[in-house]
Amino acid sequence: MPVINKNISLLPFNTFHFDCLAGHFTILQSEEDIQHIIQQGLLKDNQAIILGGGSNILLTKDLPQHLIIKNEIKGIQILQETSSYVLVEAGAGENWHDFVMHCIENDWGGLENLSLIPGTVGAAPMQNIGAYGVEIKDCLAFVKAIDKQSGKEKLFSKEQCNFGYRESIFKKEAKDQYIITRVAFQLTKNNHQFRVTYGVIQQVLSEMKISNLTLRAVSDAVISIRKSKLPDPAVLGNAGSFFKNPEIDIQQYNQLQNLFPNIPSFPINEHMVKIPAAWLIEQCGWKGKKVGNVGVHAHQALVLIHYGNGKGEDVLMLAKQIQQSVMNTFTITLQMEVNVI
Q1: Nearest to 339 by CA among 7, 60, 25
Q2: 97 with 111: CB under 8 angstroms?
Q3: Residues 66 and 80 in one domain
Q4: pLDDT tens digits along 169-216
């Protein structure tokens, strides 16, 4: 039975390291715990906020009326296995990187490019996490979740998750309606499809003198790249990539290219291209800039930093200033990837 604690600091539970106060706080370790708080009527007023690893939120205020729920449902099990693939299910509270390492140790392929992404398994499908040419939707099989009002379990197939770029049904139509409990992935056991053409993975593999590709080698390359570009949340408060890479139509891109010949892009289809948000932010002069107790990371302009003794409102104000700069310079709207609370 989960214990409801009062007036708990959320400092240990968010990677920006903001010391906001939760009026009520509890930890869930099983589906039975969820049913208990539903039966107690604790979710009826929709004042509950689910936390995974706290790596994709920006807390801007105390939450005296809210129930903060830390999802720590654990467990990894094989549901189905053939000679070519394995269907493996993980609890929503499992650490994402640890789960990826577990898969690599068992030679299950598909998630290696997503190594070292902070957060939990349950948070991963919410925003369709992705990195280096791979998104979670590429090998996700289904998501199990419990309706916060009725207590009924629902299984969402990959198609029902309505995945988009950093989007899913859990951020749109079904936002705040479910508590994700378990996620299943279909992973390869052999004939792995290595994705090494995105970014500098091939260059790093070459520097590591890797000639025969393995899941471990690709994962090691990704980890090396992420460590070189991204700050450790344990050292500098941050939530990883703060903004999404904007998608614009070809016509707007052509117009921008006339003004900015070096503007980079990645084709989405014949009508749309994706522009690196980090490049836009850097061109506006924000990379490495410090404003009070917050700032923009010197090695990756997508990452906003909390240096300590600041407030969530400081990061939010900085984010809005960056958005305005990019709009003024490029007529492009930057959307926040981080959830602001």
Answers
A1: 60
A2: no
A3: no
A4: 999 999 889 999 999 999 999 999 999 887 788 888 888 888 889 999
Where do we find the tokens 């869930």? 28
Q: Number of folded domains in the chain?
A: 3
* Cβ neighbours, 10 Å, residue 109: 22
Alpha-helix residue ranges (DSSP H) falling in the chain: 31-39, 96-105, 201-207, 215-229, 250-259, 277-283, 312-330
User: Residue 237 pairs with which residues in a beta bridge?
Assistant: 306
pTM: 0.90
Mark which of 71, 86, 110 sits at the end of a domain. Answer: 71
Exposed / middle / buried, residue 148 (Cβ in 10 Å: 0-12, 13-18, 19+): buried
Q: How confident is the model at residue 41 (pLDDT cuts 50, 70, 90)?
A: confident
Residue 285 Ramachandran class (φ > 0 left, ψ -120 to 50 alpha, else beta): left
Q: For the chain, what is the radius of gyration of the CA atoms?
A: 21
Same domain? 37 vs 13: yes
Laid out side by side, the sheet with 266-267 consists of: 247-249, 272-274, 266-267
Distance of CA 83 to the CA centre of its chain: 32
- Long-range own/partner contacts, residues 280-287 (CB < 8 A, 24 or more apart): 280/246, 280/326, 280/329, 280/330, 280/332, 280/334, 281/243, 281/322, 281/325, 281/326, 281/334, 283/329, 283/330, 284/322, 284/325, 284/326, 284/329, 285/325, 286/322, 286/325
Q: Note whether residue 61 is domain-resident.
A: yes
90: tokens are: 């993980």
Q: Which residues are catalytic?
A: 166, 241, 337
Q: What SS3 class is residue 24?
A: strand
Rounded CA gap, 301 and 75, in Å?
36
For residue 194, what is the DSSP state? -
